[in-house]
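Researcher: Structure prediction, please.
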Amino acid sequence: MSNAQSAKAIPGSYRFRCNRHNAKGKRKCTHKINIPFPGKTFNIAKDAIEAIKIDTLAIPFCWNKMDFSKETVSIVVYMTVIHAIPAPQVAQFMRQLYNLKISHDTVTRWTHKAALNLHKNLGPLKVPYSRRKRLFADETQFRVKGQKRWVWAGKESKFDSIQTFFISPRRSIEYARSTLNIAFENSPSLRKANVVTDGLHSYPCALDDLQYETEIRHIRYVGWDWDPVKKVNNNRLERQWSD
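Model: Predicted structure follows.
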C-alpha cells in the first residue's frame, strides 16, 4: 500500500488506507492496515465460551431447578446433543418410554447447558491440513428482548464441522477478528486454508490483522449460486441460518 491517507481512529487502533480507495476501475485499491494504539494490542478472543458475556446476551445460561434425576438429564442430553433429536420429539420419547412429563423448553435449556460444558471439556473437532480445505465464515442477526445481536460462525469444508462461533452486540472488525482467530487457535491448519466470506469488509481487515495471507487465500463471494470461475459459493452457513 502506498500513499496512505491520514489515520482514522477505530476501536483500539488507527486505520490507514490507500488514497486510491475511491478510484475507479483497476486503479481502485481496498487495502487497509489497522495499527493498535501505542502500548496496546488487539483484544482478540481465543475461546468462544469465554467470550460470551451475560450483558452481551441479555439472558443467562443456567440450569432450571432440578426436579429430575441426573440419569434423566443424561438420557435427554444424549438424545439432543449426540443424536441431534429435536426437543419436542425428545419430550415425547421421555413421556412414552418413561412416563416423564418434561417440557421441550426444559429439554432445550438442558441442551444449551450441556453443550457449553462439553465445549469446555472437549472443544470442537481439530482438523488436520489437507489440500483445498476451506473455512466458510458468516454472520447473522437475531433479537434478544427486542435488542439486535449478531452470531458469527465458521465451518470447515472437509468434515463440515463448526470451528468457531461468537456472539456480539454489533457487526465490526473486532468481532470478525475474534471469530476467525478462534478458528485458527482451534485448528492451526486453517491458517493455510482458503477463507470464504461474503462481501462484509470486516473480514479482509480482520484477516490482515491476524497476519493471514489475505491477498492469496481469502475468497469473497456474494450470492447463493455456484460460481464457475471461483469454483465456490458461500451458502453453507447461509442455508444453516434459515434452518
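Model: The longest strand covers residues 134-144.
Researcher: Thanks, that helps.
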